[in-house]
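Table S2 (continued). Query chain:
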Amino acid sequence: MRYLPPILLALAAICFAFYYWGLHTPAGRRAYDEMAGMIPFFAGVAGGVLLVAAAGIWLWRWLKRAR
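Corresponding output:
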């Protein structure tokens, strides 16, 4: 449990990097055109979910320690 938030944060960063590359660069737009563009889009959504999960775990641990 101690190493889970940093791992989730690293995975979120990877998802956000793929999202940015896939939707906002010319090479990414060539690789993921039209309907295939949903793949990098949902990688960005997954990155957001992972980021919220990591923040939630850190907050839960902080509140547990503050008691």
